[in-house]
Amino acid sequence: MGAFKVFRSLVVDSLDTITKGSKKYHLWMGFLILVMLIGMYCYSIQLEEGLSATGMSDRVSWGLYISNFTFLVGVAAAAVMLVMPTYVLKDIDFKQAVLIGEGLAVAALIMCLAFVVADMGGPSVLWHMIPGIGVFNFPNSMLTWDVIVLNGYLFINISIPFYILFKHYQNKEAKKSVYVPGAIISVFWAVGIHLVTAFLYQGLQARPFWNNALLGPRFLASAFAAGPALIILVLAVIRSFTAFKIEDKTIKKIAMIVTVAAQINLIMLVSELFKEFYAPTHHSESAYYLFFGLHGKNALLPWIWTAIPLNVLATVILTFNKFRNNLKVLYFCCFMLFVAIWIEKGFGLIVPGFIPGPYGKIVEYLPTGVEIGVTIGIWAMGAFIFTILAKTAIGIELGELRYKDKKA
Amino acid sequence: MSDNKKWFSLDLGLNNKKESSGSCGCGKSEGSCNSSPKEEELSADEFYEAAINASIGEERHRDGFEQVFDVKMDRRSAFKKLTASLLIGAGAVTTSCSVTTGSDTKEKAQIGWEEQFKGNYKLMTDEEKQGTINRLMRSYELRTDKKINMTAENAAEDVLFGYAFNISKCQGYMNCVSACVEENNQDRNSEMQYIRIHEMKDGEGFKFDKADDNYYHEVPAEGHFYMGTQCFHCDNPPCVEVCPVQATWKEEDGLVVIDYDWCVGCRYCMAACPYDGRRFNWSKPEVPENEVNKNQHYLGNRMRKKGVMEKCTFCVQRTRKGKNPACVEACPTGARIFGNLLDPNSTIRWVLENKKVFRLKEDLGTEPKFWYFMD
Ligand code: SF4
Ligand code: SF4
User: Fold this and answer.
1) Least buried of A86, A193, B68, B354, by fewest C-beta within 10 Å?
2) Looking at the structure, do residues B253 and B123 belong to the same domain, yes or no?
3) Same domain, yes or no, for B84 and B164?
4) Which residue numbers delimit the 4Fe-4S ferredoxin-type domain (chain B) (predicted)?
């Protein structure tokens, strides 16, 4: 009963914090709400007309939604790169960052689920996928695995920070014996969501571009670069807008993670390119399409040729300690890396899988306005959720938000 | 397990006891084909049974609203609960919320609810199957005042359908394509077609990437040959494996079918099909009322809705009644041959035994039941 009272007070208090703030904060939230409304309007058009409102077709049957889904799974998994050192290796530096990281994971996961739902042809019969009520094609379909791991990961990433914040809220220490096992599980789980999502594509013999053993590992490497890169950027923003103290040391440690992951990612990219272009086979056509265009069709060229130089440049700059330790340069590199991997792991991975089609037919894909509207709306929703979570967490951590027992 | 397979299976060299798979497994085994079809069928049944149990196990008995909600629970209240929790904002309650009374409206709403919450066709009993097709027929009547005839005929015993395509004969007339569109009530707006005819240049061999599958000129064009593709009804279909809700599966007579009402429209199966066999309803499919083929099968040509997958079913509504698919009937050149692979006297068996047949992308291990050959 007591816990429930505390919880209610927490909800009331956090509602109070998230509705109060500086002018900039209100502008930011108002802007996000506006974008979300636009996104919802676009989605209503899509519901009305069907998926023909998007740029997808029988030939390219997954597009922007699934691309973003794939990328965001990576962002979600990245939180764990901070969790492990903090909770398990007792590296105090990361403690501040980790709550933010986990908040980011929750927001990213909710966005993932939203993208999957947006991509469904029949959202009203989604209950067919609920185990027990519907028919869950487990273990045959990798999509069911993905549903399980994503929801499990969401649960873990909500419950650990919630437990810690809940304790701190009451001015109590969080018990290590409770959250450390959870943290350890989440480490393995994060690798799991990644591999499973990669297997979703990797397991399709029909699509040689995806059906390649490196896909899973490369997912991991690129995610562990892009995710922490985003966390660095978010920390930078939080540092300058709130009283929340994040030391340079913390950011520099995360930068180290980003660098190593980006380097590994680059090595794998080279290996992939070598395989596709040294002895090209029929199966290399998708890669040719992606990098050079096929038969005059080259819609993806501007994208991939933005991504690759950004990726290489950022990785090279980060490799030098001198540059990496300069925060301005670091932020810039993180931004480049984030954009590069978003293109590469999103568009650059999903769309070429369908081009050329099973019989060599090349039909290009361009997202429509409605599709872009929904996508941006979902991103705004993610940012909105994250802001709320972060604001509450920061409030508690700074001691502004505390449970006041009326009787005491 | 592979012993129980009715037809080809991927030979990885692990199964030394098995005879190497020739074009026909029966031809070589001392006429065993005539003497043991019963036994074979029985074991195939067992295999099917075991496969179902292995893949869905318990769920088979619990699936669908009837099984999930205990029999004691009133069906109506179960619907209400489900509706309240699941349908808010889903826009599917439209009819049921209607204020207008009138028994027709009510009946429509009733049917709408029952249809929304029915189980997966694959797991239905025969009565449940009959129930849903009755509802669908009645609903069509209520909407249009016209009657349709829908069946839920199950696969017959000792039948495994297969298809052969004579490349030398095909002239690219595309009669099969239009017959298929008419027979299967495909969306006229998006010009959906299950069959694609690829026009290829003589002397270049099978260059699919250079072929034209969307031509509008007079055929046969000088210096070209033609080849048709559609869903090949693979014996080891990757599209079935990946479906998260088992909305698509292989029937006992080898047809790979889709329950349009169970499909959630994720399009994973489309990505998994190596043969471009599947089509998606990107918008609401439309067929002019006077062109609707009213002889329908639940798994075949009944009307689809937007956001679901569909594909060639080898015209299940015709073939389970002993007729040929529409494409076979429509082809003026006789390039298309269809029949029962388990019947040693069928034409298709004759083709497989006497012609040099091949299949597309055999390396993928999908085991299509669709062969090509030349005169
Ligand atoms: S051809 Fe494609 S859709 Fe048809 S059974 Fe094979 S994999 Fe499935
Ligand atoms: S689109 Fe439908 S049939 Fe295909 S995998 Fe998804 S739910 Fe199954």
Assistant:
1) B354
2) no
3) no
4) 254-283
